[in-house]
């Protein structure tokens, strides 16, 4: 079997390309012998010493010699063209000699460049350190919390009338005190408060109503929405508290809205949520 095309030696160094081309010649007679290769590649006038190869390569060659021969195949091997075997052997031997010479004459700058042991890869230590670094914001399972334990991401406020601002405080609804309460006064403008749930909770429970100390007891509507969709809309009346248990699984945002309906009240209506609880 003959080679169908010439080898591609464009990536070889210019000073080695002619010698490698001879080693890969299609004509076996044109290929240099090992002794000739050593004479051409060895820089000194005298022949190379017995231990001219780097210790690592000598040890590797010794391991190959010490390895037991492979077990014979149970089947008859196919016939291989002898010329191909010779060409492959000469090419491999030439490559081994060239690599040995390059390693032998190359200065060892590994310790100076890397600041560590010779041959150490500085990127390996960096990857190991990065792999053991802790995540600054690990994902933790949700726990049962009151809505007052979370910071709202947005809310309306009235700087002229503090009563028309969302406030976290204990509140009394229909004679019952709720230590964890949310109140907001409704005057002429809608009141909106929004929380980030990040899909961590499953249920929202709370008591809705008007605070017992509300200046104005007019019925008022409250809307609870998740990700922009209404979950519950309820009319609130003084003395008629309402307990809600809503499914908030998969929601990213939860919003509370009290609608003024384009009406201004003589006295502020105090809307209240008692013990608003979020559960996984």
TrEMBL record:
Keywords assigned by UniProt, alphabetized: Membrane, Transmembrane, Transmembrane helix
UniProt-annotated stretches for the region Disordered: 111-144
Transmembrane segments: 85-106
Glycosyl hydrolase family 98 putative carbohydrate-binding module domain sequence ranges: 141-264
Xref: Pfam families: NPCBM
InterPro entries: Galactose-bd-like_sf, Glyco_hyd_98_carb-bd, Kinase-like_dom_sf, NPCBM_sf
Protein name per the record: Glycosyl hydrolase family 98 putative carbohydrate-binding module domain-containing protein
Organism for this UniProt entry: Actinomadura rayongensis
Source species taxonomy: Bacteria, Bacillati, Actinomycetota, Actinomycetes, Streptosporangiales
Gene3D superfamilies to which the protein is assigned, alphabetical: NPCBM/NEW2 domain, Transferase(Phosphotransferase) domain 1
